[in-house]
Amino acid sequence: MTTMTLAKALNAGLRKAMEADDKVVIMGEDVGTLGGVFRITDGLQKDFGDARVIDTPLAESGIVGTAVGLAMRGYRPVVEIQFDGFVYPAYDQIVCQVAKLHFRSLGRVRIPMVIRIPFGGGIGAVEHHSESPEAQFVHTPGLKVVACSNPADGYAMIQQAIHADDPVVFLEPKRLYHSAKADVDESAPAAPLWQSRVVRPGSDATLVAYGPTVSTCLDAATVAAEEGRSLEVIDLRTLSPLDLVPVHESVRRTGRLVVVHEAHVTLGLGAEIAARVTEECFHSLEAPVLRVGGFDTPYPPARIEEAFLPDLDRVLDAVDRTFGF
Amino acid sequence: MTTMTLAKALNAGLRKAMEADDKVVIMGEDVGTLGGVFRITDGLQKDFGDARVIDTPLAESGIVGTAVGLAMRGYRPVVEIQFDGFVYPAYDQIVCQVAKLHFRSLGRVRIPMVIRIPFGGGIGAVEHHSESPEAQFVHTPGLKVVACSNPADGYAMIQQAIHADDPVVFLEPKRLYHSAKADVDESAPAAPLWQSRVVRPGSDATLVAYGPTVSTCLDAATVAAEEGRSLEVIDLRTLSPLDLVPVHESVRRTGRLVVVHEAHVTLGLGAEIAARVTEECFHSLEAPVLRVGGFDTPYPPARIEEAFLPDLDRVLDAVDRTFGF
Amino acid sequence: MTDPVFGPAPERVPDPELVQLLTPEGERVHHPGFDVDFTADELCGFYRDMVLVRRLDIEATALQRHGELGLWAQLLGQEAAQIGAGRALAPQDFVFPTYREHGVAWCRGVDPVRLLALFRGVDQGSWDPAEHNFGLYTIVIGAQTLHATGYAMGVQRDGLVGTGEPERDTAVVAHFGDGASSQGDVNEAFVFAASFNAPVVFFCQNNQWAISEPFERQSRIPLYRRAHGFGFPGIRVDGNDVLATYAVTKAALQRAREGQGPILIEAYTYRMGAHTTTDDPTRYRLSDDVEHWKLKDPIARLEVYLRRNGLADDAFLADVAAQADALGERMRRECHALPDPSPHDLWDLVHAEKTAELAAQQAEYDAHAASFEEVSS
Amino acid sequence: MTDPVFGPAPERVPDPELVQLLTPEGERVHHPGFDVDFTADELCGFYRDMVLVRRLDIEATALQRHGELGLWAQLLGQEAAQIGAGRALAPQDFVFPTYREHGVAWCRGVDPVRLLALFRGVDQGSWDPAEHNFGLYTIVIGAQTLHATGYAMGVQRDGLVGTGEPERDTAVVAHFGDGASSQGDVNEAFVFAASFNAPVVFFCQNNQWAISEPFERQSRIPLYRRAHGFGFPGIRVDGNDVLATYAVTKAALQRAREGQGPILIEAYTYRMGAHTTTDDPTRYRLSDDVEHWKLKDPIARLEVYLRRNGLADDAFLADVAAQADALGERMRRECHALPDPSPHDLWDLVHAEKTAELAAQQAEYDAHAASFEEVSS
Ligand SMILES: Cc1ncc(C[n+]2csc(CCOP(=O)(O)OP(=O)(O)O)c2C)c(N)n1
Ligand SMILES: Cc1ncc(C[n+]2csc(CCOP(=O)(O)OP(=O)(O)O)c2C)c(N)n1
Ligand SMILES: [Mg+2]
Ligand SMILES: [Mg+2]
């Protein structure tokens, strides 16, 4: 059991995966000597050499495209996209190649690639550094998409994602990299990667979140509890496939659901969850599923990002509204 | 009043827009001498010259990126993406530049660009030629997204989109290009671009569709009528902004809604419509909003695309299911 | 025009000769860099290959006309470029094709019927890339050049470059077209290959056209010179000359295997047919042009050479023609017999590990399909 | 090593001299292609500009350290490249910057406080591109090079190339870095610019680093030669020499305005500071390197030259220093005074024509905000 930040937990997880399988290679901009702009790959090039931790030319399509070739040659590339907003030059390779090669080849070609993306806002950054692009990947068949929300999950999930034989978009809540510290039990058996998890039980309404908004929801539940309202909080963890079993179970008890994410509300994950849960739990719902997310505007300048991001007040406000139907 | 195919109607609309404003330029692969692989720009280079109808090098990011520059210089570029599946190399320019420049510049920079995309399946094509990428653009603030479903709309909407001061992703149901013939009244006043439209009134359940699935839904309504069930069909026309006013009005009467599109169900437009309509019409709904769409698999080989695409049976089946709740 | 300040524009540098070993008239010429001797067997083999892949192409085109294929991308005119490139490979080399490399597929032992299946819409490529060391056809222009570069980086990591053992040293070929040279991905592949000195041979078939756009829209200088801007060699070869294409590719592959890094070959050729069976080239090019290139036919010139030098007699030529007939007959037969895929299987193919979500969608589909069978029975 | 078959690897061609007009020691040298005379006013102007933008940079860096800015991208060491490029412009020319062209912004009359606002997180660029003929900062690496090329195609369509009227003929500048040269977009910009012969000057500040990656990761040959692969000229200039940068840029712009098409300038310089204020360059580079480049300081060499030739006296230098102090003081003052934006306005900025959808979201936000004001009041 060690106390560590999310950044350190991911670093430790990557190291573990590299030790376990020498086909694991890390690729990206500045991942070598510098250890990445967030230091997630700190020290790995020193210990595993520059054939396994590769500083690439500055071209995201090139990074993902060459990673496809490495995967076809039997490697397990772990690609770092420096910031969420810079994944788009690689979008074509991800959507048309990474996602489709298994299908296209009738299952003969596997692309066990992990695409790590530091995502979300709240760090006071300039444009393109605070995006939440997950919905677009979840809409793309062939990709799997997960998001960690705490150091213990970060440590376990990155290893599981690397171990998986399918391409995984791995979302890391960048604003928690160096803030969230927690105990990581490196020898504990990890929960399956493809399961969501109830992180706080409750009975009056359900909150669903992932990545950076899990802690927002936990805070909201604490405040709500003081006001006598019991909120259940579910950390989705896996966005594709979606594991809504615990959500359905919860909503059947609470009758009320609010989904919280930083991505734009329109066609964000909340839309899909609302549609599925309404279909599955139609007669249990006391109110429509409500969504709290980033507004349908581009991510704003840092001085007003707090207004853009879902916060405790907007979450509690939505919970209130579910009681108004 | 002239009877024409959708392809001819779009061609006529483009010609009209070019005559009306000499800042309108057309760009793309093979749009010049060849008139585009679907002949939508047929004859335009001959009549307007190669400074206004530009055969570009084979690079979609280059096409959209240079169109941004032309827009900044006061032009109104109409970009043709040859097939839906080839829009992804331009995705970065569309999402990070086209969509955001107005916002980023505090409204000083306008990008009155139209990105024409022949979309959808049903033409027996090879991979990447039958995609429905609309959800990803609807999720992107700053873009407007419309889809035409018939020649009269094609003729009017393309002109309106070119006239609009914002970037518009213009989706054309390629499988209807040369099949759907209809009367186009070139002098009739056009309906506003940003409005959806009830194309068949009904009272028992509501179908919402756009582009290629409008005719599927109209066929379904015809069959249902024979079986004594009255379906209202709404052609969305505008996907971003969404105009759900007629949908809400309809659902308040029918209590049942099925959304039909070719895009993958998960996080397709149906998800957003389900979420919004459920929130707006919670107490009117007799059943959850159901969705009929492409499966969550990559688009399949042509010999089985019919199974993948929403058809009359799947639509009617979903309607039946809304009566089962 | 020489710019007084910036010096000669680079396109004014005299173009080094196209590498050619067999003239359009069937005359064997020599090139100092590629002083190769060919055995009669090799020459006859090239001839047979070219005749057979031309037949393959004609047959597939006919099948499309008869509605058996949804589409066909013709290689007519590019036989020498493809057979030269394909036959130069060592077994361990790996090839990343576009959608038109039927001749290379042939050399790699991919059954032509597998190509038909793809264009018929039965599947999206059903050969095993690992079995043939031949990747799947790639339709998104240029994407495969990055895959090739990454694969070559994998070969480096496997320690299979520069060992000096001919059985082990491995090179990778990235095929692409003149149009593709404009794509960002192709240029990024050049950057990565140069940066990592990857053992990849970029093989561009400049067939003068990207659908309706002439080569000049993509580049104002010969394409092989693009490589110079990235710091590796480029060379232009007569792509209608199978001997030259073979010799140049072989040398380039050897160079890559030895660890000397990437190289760009521009095989200068001509797309004699339409872009694909849906295309109508009369809309954008002169038949004069096509006639001009007919005189450079890759098969005719080798036939003249073989005959003139007594390397092939009537019996040999008749035998090749018979093989072509047999191939055509088999293709027709087996194409008709290709079974349609089952929609049921769709969900099995999405991932290596199927998800519960997709299994549920599959079950739903099956139930729906079953209900229809009930109704119709 | 010369390859016996493919000829000399292109990187072996002797590198033509870097264009330089002022040595690091402050000696004026001559270059046959750029035989330019400068007036005392021009030279003093360059000096003043460089001193002021260095102060601008230092001041902004300090503001970041004090928490007033979220980030700052330093130009330290690149003053000559930027002032040379900026002062060579004609008023009608249009510039597409990256995020580091503070010196060019200065030349284009953009108030430095506007740059602070962006890095403070108040906005994402609040100057009017059309007013200054200076586009917004672009953070996505390379994207702006395509915008520049398209803009230049617009200039062509406006008939403002090769008219011979110096007031009308227009060129466009695309700034980018050495790292950016690897991006697909930049190479596609080269393709488009060459294909359409667009009046665009690609101006690459090769400051040797892309964050922590040395230039060698991006290219194994000097970058100006990339242009040759696309069929247009490239030239390398001493980017720490304001005279040379000015002269080369001026000639390149003129060439573009005359209709001779694109050109690539590689301004060879060095990023003396960190990549941005969040970066720690000690993790990846030697201080020796930095020391070495200090000897090539762009301001010091011009100061030596001015003094030695009696072109600048103490009074002038003191005046420039005073101007720098005043600038610094104003930046501090006005930075503190920058008002925060209002979230309410977000929805007004998304489109030229606001949608009902966004108006509704805006109203909802306003109601929510008002309810909080009620609660807290
Ligand atoms: C990214 C992308 N854009 C557009 C297309 C449509 N398309 C298919 S082939 C082709 C022309 C390709 O020309 P070239 O690279 O010269 O190859 P060739 O067909 O001549 O063999 C185009 C534009 C595509 N397949 N992929
Ligand atoms: C598409 C994209 N990928 C990654 C980044 C992150 N990033 C910002 S600056 C930079 C290095 C740029 O290097 P260079 O082009 O040499 O310009 P310099 O910063 O040296 O001026 C990187 C990788 C980005 N902004 N955009
Ligand atoms: Mg071609
Ligand atoms: Mg740099």
TrEMBL record, chains A, B:
<feature type="domain" description="Transketolase-like pyrimidine-binding">
    <location>
        <begin position="4"/>
        <end position="179"/>
    </location>
</feature>
<keyword id="KW-0786">Thiamine pyrophosphate</keyword>
<protein>
    <submittedName>
        <fullName>Alpha-ketoacid dehydrogenase subunit beta</fullName>
    </submittedName>
</protein>
<dbReference type="Pfam" id="PF02780">
    <property type="entry name" value="Transketolase_C"/>
</dbReference>
<dbReference type="InterPro" id="IPR033248">
    <property type="entry name" value="Transketolase_C"/>
</dbReference>
<dbReference type="InterPro" id="IPR005475">
    <property type="entry name" value="Transketolase-like_Pyr-bd"/>
</dbReference>
<dbReference type="Pfam" id="PF02779">
    <property type="entry name" value="Transket_pyr"/>
</dbReference>
TrEMBL record, chains C, D:
<dbReference type="InterPro" id="IPR017596">
    <property type="entry name" value="PdhA/BkdA"/>
</dbReference>
<dbReference type="Pfam" id="PF00676">
    <property type="entry name" value="E1_dh"/>
</dbReference>
<keyword id="KW-0786">Thiamine pyrophosphate</keyword>
<feature type="domain" description="Dehydrogenase E1 component">
    <location>
        <begin position="48"/>
        <end position="326"/>
    </location>
</feature>
<keyword id="KW-0670">Pyruvate</keyword>
<protein>
    <submittedName>
        <fullName>Pyruvate dehydrogenase (Acetyl-transferring) E1 component subunit alpha</fullName>
    </submittedName>
</protein>
<dbReference type="GO" id="GO:0016491">
    <property type="term" value="F:oxidoreductase activity"/>
</dbReference>
<dbReference type="InterPro" id="IPR050771">
    <property type="entry name" value="Alpha-ketoacid_DH_E1_comp"/>
</dbReference>
<keyword id="KW-0560">Oxidoreductase</keyword>
<dbReference type="InterPro" id="IPR001017">
    <property type="entry name" value="DH_E1"/>
</dbReference>
